[in-house]
Design a protein that fits this description.
two-stranded antiparallel ribbon; 2 domains; single chain; 22% strand; 169 residues
């Protein structure tokens, strides 16, 4: 079974537990009977790696302002067009590049930053495309499919990347 999507959200567990305690029917409306009965389900997919990265948007914007060619060196023309060079959007894509390298078990500089590209689907969903050394390393590690989630505020940008052995539908 392949992963259809990856999403990240932060939930205050104590607050969520309080909602469940106050609203007895909430869990029935939100979760299937199987989810309520078994919270230890396994996913039938080979996960090659998981990477998470968070970028401080203000600091990233300062780097963009100080170094005129930084965006050209780090991002593909398509990435820059998709983001319209908005610092928070570029920061989220930078986080995706770093998270991808973490999935591959390497650090920043092991592959070219243009070798990890974040494209937008017609729906607006992000999609990873690997080129060159990054694609070769992914093949070597058995990563056939990539799943990415991006988020940003004016303060932080983050990305979660999952590499799996299953191909996406």
């Amino acid at each position: 079974m392949g992963v259809v999507g990856v999403g990240v959200d932060v939930v205050d567990v104590e607050r969520f537990a309080a909602v469940l305690a106050r609203r007895a029917r909430f869990a029935q409306r939100v979760f299937t009977p199987g989810e309520r009965a078994d919270t230890s389900r396994e996913v039938a997919m080979g996960v090659v790696g998981v990477g998470v990265d968070v970028v401080d948007v203000e600091r990233f914007a300062a780097v963009l302002a100080r170094r005129a060619r930084f965006a050209q060196r780090v991002f593909t023309p398509g990435e820059r067009a998709d983001t319209r060079d908005a610092p928070e959007r570029l920061a989220a894509r930078f986080a995706a590049k770093e998270a991808t390298m973490k999935c591959l078990g390497v650090g920043l500089g092991a592959v070219g930053l243009h070798d990890v590209e974040v494209r937008r689907e017609p729906s607006g969903a992000p999609r990873l495309v690997l080129h060159g050394a990054a694609a070769a390393l992914a093949r070597e590690r058995g990563a056939l499919s990539w799943h990415v989630s991006l988020t940003h505020t004016a303060i932080t940008a983050a990305a979660v990347v999952v590499a799996s052995t299953e191909t996406s539908p």
